[in-house]
């Protein structure tokens, strides 16, 4: 789990309905640096990609794009979706933070400082921390030298 507290409006979710599967087809979920390193170490490095998170820039919570490693988005969706649209990382205990905590059946309204407790914001913020620069370099190096 992230080092930051996530709002009590979220809870872990393992839904496999069409609405949730479509979310993964549209946009792969984000995770923390530790989660992406665990995924890479589990042999899935070829399914990860360097990407950027712009939502914070659009919403005004960040002043720049956040560069991170995340599941690769293929033509038909997240690289970790199987033929039935399910996440192969889920049963392995490797599903990233945003995917574990998102519930498409529940509308979450965040007000004021609560926006800083959303799974996406927490994951992006973990990538910005100075403590993780060494880990980012290791992941990037492994990704580039594969």
Distance between the termini: 27 Å
Strand content: 5-15%
H and E string:
HHEHEEEHHH
Overall mean confidence score, pLDDT: 78
Q: Can you walk through the features of this model?
A:
The chain is 36% helix and 11% strand. The longest helix has 12 residues, at 33-44. Strands 1-2 form a two-stranded antiparallel ribbon. A two-stranded antiparallel sheet has the order 3-4. The chain is α+β, with helices and mostly antiparallel strands and 146 residues long. It is globular. A hairpin with a 2-residue loop joins strand 3 and strand 4 (77-78). The relative contact order is 0.26.
Question: Main attributes?
Answer:
11% strand, 6 helices, alpha+beta, two-stranded antiparallel sheet, 146 residues
Please outline what is shown here:
The chain is of the alpha+beta class. It contains six helices and four strands, in the order ααβαβββααα. Strand 3 and strand 4 form a beta hairpin.
């Amino acid at each position: 789990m992230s080092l930051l507290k996530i709002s009590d409006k979220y809870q872990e979710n393992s839904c496999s309905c069409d609405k949730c599967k479509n979310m993964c087809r549209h946009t792969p979920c984000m995770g923390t640096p530790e989660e992406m390193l665990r995924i890479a170490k589990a042999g899935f490095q070829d399914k990860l990609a360097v990407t950027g998170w712009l939502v914070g820039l659009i919403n005004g919570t960040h002043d720049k794009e956040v560069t991170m490693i995340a599941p690769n988005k293929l033509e038909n969706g997240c690289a970790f979706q199987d033929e039935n649209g399910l996440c192969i990382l889920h049963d392995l205990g490797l599903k990233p933070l945003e995917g574990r905590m998102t519930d498409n059946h529940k509308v979450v309204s965040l007000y004021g400082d609560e926006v800083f407790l959303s799974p996406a914001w927490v994951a992006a913020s973990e990538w910005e921390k100075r403590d993780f620069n060494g880990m980012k370099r290791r992941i990037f190096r492994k990704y580039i030298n594969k």
